[in-house]
Fold this protein.
Amino acid sequence: MIKRMCSKVLPVVLALGLLCGGTAWAGKEDGHGHCHKKKVGFFQRLGRAIRHLGDHIKNGIMDFGVKVKYFFTGRKCRVWVCGYYDHNGRHVKGHWRYLNNCHGKPGQGNPGQGNNPGQGSNPGQGSNPGQGGGSLPPLPPDNPPAESPAQPPSDLPPTGEPPASDQGQGDQGQGDQGQGNPGQGKRTLGMLMNDLVTASADLDQLKRQAVQARKGKAKPEVMMSMAEDYTLIGNDREADGKRLVRVITQDLEQNQGRPGIYYSAYLRNLSRMTKADRDSIRDILESIEKFVKAEALEEGKNSPYHARLAELSKF
């Protein structure tokens, strides 16, 4: 009798364990910036598995299209990134990442671009970078602006790169809707910083794909294509990272260590990021902090750079 009851109850208990069990990182921060765990049920895990399968099916289709276009044109102006869960636990849909340089010909493969930087299908954009949608003066590639507007804006104008898409930049916390078009022109400081975060997440995803492909004994040409995509996105991230460092350090130099419009915008954007997002661009943040520390040591105790160093140490 007892054996018969156990044989009936045990499967029910196991089924309930499958439905209610399992944990995963939710990606939400507590007050100290740490992620906590959230229970993930059976159906949620099943949904993630189905979504994962759909992402990889679409990835195969898009990769095939890129190969065909590359065969006929000899150019690779964009890379398809398979959908994934980022370091915050949010699902990012598969998306195109447009490359800054399309084999030395910027603008190819990006809709709505003309011969002049800033031309595109975005309303309000003129023939000069920064026209429409912003109140900031244009920022030359290697020099800070000569004059600052009366009100410190939150973002930074373009430095010559044309926008890659007419779609708006997605909010960082949109979850399943992704994080906007990662290939969009970095018209503002916030967009530049968000793109660095998404580029870091995309690189992590490509690395995971390469590991899985190696385990599955993928063809050599597939592995070479993944390595090429990783290098292209990595080069873009490095260039954008150097650009961010240059803008912030030049702004501080121009203001003799006091907060300028771009440095202030930089701090605001950092405060809006999650700890995981900041960690993904930690190498860039450390480069800026290293510059501030060197200036503080050089100028002595009364230097304004000491206050800037204290502000940056919070992140």
